[in-house]
Amino acid sequence: MNWWISAAQYATETLALVLIVRLLSLRDKRESVYVVFALFLAFQLLSTSEYLVLSRWFLNKLDYRLVWIVSTVAGWLFSLSLVYSLAKAVLASLPGVLKFSRILLNSVFPIAIIGALLTVRGEYSITGAGHYSDPTDQFVVVGLVIDRAISMASLFVLVAILAFILWFPVKMPRNLAIISVGLVVYFGSKTGLALLRSYAVSGAISRSSQHLRELVSVGVSAVVICCFLYWIIFIDPKGQTAQVRIGHSWRSSEQGKLIQQLEALNLALLRNSQRFEL
Amino acid sequence: MSFVFVLTPLVLFIAILIFLLPVLARLLRQCHLSDVTPEWLESFSPLMYQPMEFLLAEEDFEFLVRQPGFEASLHKKLRRERIWIFRQYLNRLIADFNRLHVYARYLTTQSHMDQSNVLAQLVWLRMRFSFTVLRVEASLLLAYFGYRPRLVSQAIARLDEMNGYLHALAAA
Question: Which residue of A238, A268, B148, B150 shows the fewest CB atoms closer than 10 Å?
């Protein structure tokens, strides 16, 4: 099992590096979301190798659990900034209702975080970490549970904003749609697997529960690898300008016809208004 | 006794769900922008739904009762048929509202000026319309027992309001 975990970690790191290069090579500097996404990935990459670097400086006197707690807190900030900047970029596809969209985002964001944090206490008590003698171990479990809550909040914000966008028959940049779909899968799987770890593998450490924990770790890595591959394959410079419509799909053969139809609709509306005024 | 306490809310919940789901499905049905054609828009008027207000009027049924050779079965048949026609009208009214709403949403997003206030009004109108339709549907259930459906004029007024917003948006 350890061999699988190491292989998955190396694969994740390599793919993260490729993806960072791909994102930074995109020319459109107007979209800060690409830079934020690259920073998020760079942080993920650093957090996997931080212990190796820091242990050299502190000559093995460093407690890895403390390093993990600090880096996880920073990771939450990166996750939330990525979701916020992505939602902001996606909502820019609706220029006529920008004020409404901003109010919506600024309302959904804190509600999602508060709602997700309200679930922390229940999950923490199920893990049985309250009985641990070492307070650092307790903090680690708190960190794991809050990490799941932050993923859940991110998922909720993304789903809410995408549902709002789907409500409108508008197009959005293809890259943003790809990043959004990938992040929904990423945060969704992360939340699901973290809940599985807490609820199905909680309690005393037995051989089978240890095996399940490792399986969950491999599951998370597999999802991350799939998401990274999806982004590497589909995010490209053309996708910054190419538009896609999610939800209200217009068949490509009908596209031209529909544009003519929209112009005719405006004329029809004006004629109808005049008829009623008379 | 505890069995009744558990079963009653459960049955009530399932009954409400059976009533709500088809109505909500019609209300939330995503309308395709290509469904809104210039011909339809030009000929559309909320006035076409005015017959709904008289479909289940008591006067018609009272007139039937006064006729020689009146049969109760005929009365029931007429009421059933009228309710069926009323439901068809209501379904069309919901579909028309959805069409106008999707086009209005499209216009708000494409505007050069910020139309956030209009969108907020559209969202509010949508909620009021949905609530009115749910109440009309509930009163339609009572129509089988001889009650006249209420709030029909309110549903038509909401459609008219929607039409007004669309014209204002197109003129802007």
Answer: A238
